[in-house]
Structure formats: C-alpha cells, structure tokens
From TrEMBL:
The keyword Zinc-finger applies. This is Pr domain zinc finger protein 13. The lineage of its organism: Eukaryota, Metazoa, Ecdysozoa, Arthropoda, Hexapoda. Residues 1-28, 120-140 are annotated as: Disordered. It is found in: Nucleus.
Length: 140
C-alpha cells in the first residue's frame, strides 16, 4: 500500500535488538523523529512532511502518528499526547458552580475566557459582547 511511507519504528537504529521495546518505544521514536526532522524551514515531520517552527511543536505532533500518550488526567486517568488537550479535558471535571453559560445558545463553558471567546466567535453580530456569570441552570 504505502511502501514509501516511513513507519515509526523505521527511525530507530537498525542495530537495535528486534526483541527490545526500544525498537518500537513511542518515546524513543518521538525523540529520534524530532532529531531527524531538522531542516532549513524549521522541523519537518518525517511521517507527513508538516513543518513546525519549534522542535517542541514537532514532538507533540509526532505523537499523533505514534499514538504516544504520556500525559494522564489525575481525575479519570484518560491519556493524552498533547498537553493543551489534557488541560481542556481537566476543565470538564470542575463543579457546575464554576461554569459559564452562553445566554444566547445555552452552551456551557468552564472558564469566563472560554465563554468570551465563544461569544466573539459564534455570536459577535448577535450580541453586545457582554459576558455575565450564569450558572448551568441559568441562575446568576
């Protein structure tokens, strides 16, 4: 099918023992792939050729190819590869008292900043931009 496509284990040294977990260890693949990806434009993903200005961005991106998810939610133990996705997820565990509800469409968000961003993105022509603290059930 995709014989020219690089597989995660292809970026590791050929002399790595086949039975070694290092041969397909996602953390090792992430490290090697981000080192190999250095180019004039920045850092290129060896799997899909997407270019990142920072090595860190490439490392996080490589996890989408390898499935490496080293980050864990302390509340429910759900695993994540991207720290920003973990942070968004953790906010789902807050109590109803600390949530903000859009008075236009009813969408519930965890942070005031998220509600402001939501209103600016989805309702900017429909409202005056005011954001009020509204409980999940509409209580103020």
């Amino acid at each position: 099918m995709h014989q020219d496509r690089i597989m995660p284990y292809d970026v590791l040294p050929a002399n790595a023992p086949a039975e070694s977990e290092k041969k397909t260890d996602p953390a090792e693949v992430e490290t090697r792939a981000s080192e190999i990806g250095k180019c004039n434009e920045g850092y290129r993903c060896i799997f899909c050729n997407k270019i990142y200005s920072r090595k860190y961005g490439l490392r996080i991106h490589i996890r989408t190819h390898t499935g490496y998810k080293p980050l864990t939610c302390k509340v429910c133990e759900h695993r994540f590869g991207d720290p920003s996705n973990l942070n968004k997820h953790v906010r789902l565990h807050v109590t109803d008292d600390s949530r903000y509800k859009c008075d236009i469409c009813g969408k519930v968000l965890v942070r005031r900043r998220d509600l402001e961003r939501h209103k600016n993105s989805w309702h900017s022509e429909k409202n005056d931009g005011n954001v009020s603290d509204v409980g999940v059930n509409g209580a103020t």
